[in-house]
Amino acid sequence: MSGHSKWHNIQGRKNAQDAKRGKIFQKISRDLYQAAKAGDPDPANNAQLRLVIDKAHAANMPKKNIDRAIAKASGIGGAKFEEVTYEGYGPGGVAVMVSALTDNKNRTASAVRSAFSHSGGSLGASGSVSYMFDRKGLIEILRDDLDKSEDDMLMDALDAGAEDMKATEEKFQIFTDPSNMTDVRDALQEQGYELDTAEVTMIPQNRTEVPADKAKQYRHLIDELTENDDVADIYETGILPDEDDDEE
């Protein structure tokens, strides 16, 4: 039995690693699509797309996945993809926004609705929770091997045109006006900074702690949404009971 148990433990760890890798690839695919859609699908003429492709390579993302995401943005293959946003409340009344990229809105809407329903949440009308978020440019710079104090980093960020900055133990998070994100990104790169993230995203104005008795349902909702290939991003205001307030 010990060999059987060991095999299950190894298989369980492998499944968990595969799921984590899948989530990373999913986010990078979304970033590739948006970068190619917003600019030139040729990375030689699109600095943002080159940045995301570099991140994809660092994550060992297969070339076919990279090419597929860029093809979606450029319309190669005939399929037309649309960006759709769904809004609702998860367990405990936590606000959740789901950004999807789909070639079949009926399929995606049904899957997203089912995910909320399975977890005791509910979809709402357009605008029902979006007012709880601010659309911001977000640039993240890892602090590993970066010899910069918080004050110096803040000054460089402000000089580049940023609005604000937050520092954690792992990274500097720089916030910009959405229309100014690319200018700030380019200015920081010209200063020699290596960026881990540069995107326009939705930042919750306030966070809500998920009740302990709803935490399992809440995790299930986020996991089910994440596993949906059509879902590009999830924005939510929830803090699970074992999370730190300062974590993203």
Automatic annotation (TrEMBL):
Q: Name one Pfam family in it.
A: Transcrip_reg
Tell me the superkingdom of the source.
Answer: Bacteria
Set out the biological process GO terms recorded for this chain's protein.
Answer: regulation of DNA-templated transcription
Name all TACO1/YebC-like N-terminal domain ranges. Answer: 5-75
UniProt similarity note: Belongs to the TACO1 family.
What NCBIfam families does its record include? PRK00110.1, PRK12378.1, YebC/PmpR family DNA-binding transcriptional regulator
- What is the recorded name of this protein? Probable transcriptional regulatory protein C5O77_06410
